[in-house]
Amino acid sequence: MKEEKSQEKKLNLSRRSFVKLGAVSAVAGAGAVAGLPAQAETTSDRELPGKMPQTQLPVKVDSHVYKRFHQQDTAFCQAATGRFPEGRQAFSQLGATTQEVGLRQIDKALTDAGWYVDKLIANNASIMSPDTLAYRWDNDADVADSAYAFSSKEEATHHIKKAARFLGADLVGITPYDERWTYASIFKPELKKSVEPELPFTPKSVIVLGYEMDYEAMATAPSGVSGGAVGKGYSQMAITGASLRNFINNLGYRAFASGNDVALSVPYGVAAGLGEAARNGILVTYEYGPRVRIGKVFTELDLSYNKPVTFGVRHFCESCMRCADACPGNAISKTKKPSFDIHNECNNPGVEKWAVDAKKCLLGWGKTQSDCATCITSCPYSKPDFWHHRLVDKVNKLMPGPVHSVMREMDKLFGYGNSFDRKSVTKFWKS
Ligand code: SF4
Ligand code: SF4
Question: The whole model's pTM is what?
């Protein structure tokens, strides 16, 4: 039922888009409306030794090169633990207020308010600190004695997705657990060292949850207001993740929630059919583009799985580069095609992508004295009614490069994707 509603919503969007397309079809050289996201063609990953099933992704993974990622190697963890002193310095500038619109006390107060619940119940899990509070692993005291008897896997899946949306998720996809994306080691601040993750059980399924970040607030990036939208995404992630875990526990099954603290989110988002991995290093979803935060709930429940989808994002990225041009840290790749090249230990090797230089990114945060997010705001897929880019999928089959370049310029003409736009901050507070 939910899937049907979602399909219906997408069809309605396409119908609305069709009306608006008249204006652009002549320029784009195509009168067709792009349809629903297609199921992606998956590349056959070479098998990794290991006991867990591996999902087929529409992204090449070279198993001879791929290594599981160590959480302590994220730029943020390195900054917090002092391994990256310039990053630590950048972090220390984030709380500062100035007289500049977007960085005033009122703007930064919104950043803090957005992050407040995350700090209370997730203990900085956006950077490290797995297995605490909302994201604790221990299920012993919580699992109901009797297991609820679903009549089928499909029925279980429907109820889990329904509950996830009811509890606050905007997007839900489910994929098998894939050990490749679990950190090889996790950082325990209380021990001041990394340890191998010993999960409380071997999960069967991963419920991948997307949380929309407010468009008007994100349009102000980089600012304290967009920082509030980012923080609110993390706070909601902790609330919904913990609540969904509780729901599953009360059905008699084990589960635990996580933010960025246990495993990589983008590959799980791709595997669960939520979107595509784009040039900006972020998951670009069909509904909200990159304007989402991703959380995960791991469970022993056996569920029906979504498949990866494609709606032309990676192809469009080849000609677009708006995020790379706008990035204040010069951290985003400008090569046309994705590759296996990486910058440093902040990137895991063996995945074909546009690797973002996470250290430069963090320094960009310092420059803007905010959570930045310019690469989200500048992306044409960010805007709510993404009408002319619904053409992208069809155009890809016709003459992608030149048409994508025209579309990128049109996006600017329509006034979308501006960053460092202080008027948008005033507009946010006045609306
Ligand atoms: S968050 Fe800002 S600095 Fe980092 S990659 Fe995105 S645009 Fe660049
Ligand atoms: S701004 Fe353009 S290049 Fe960057 S992620 Fe979005 S579509 Fe891709």
Answer: 0.86
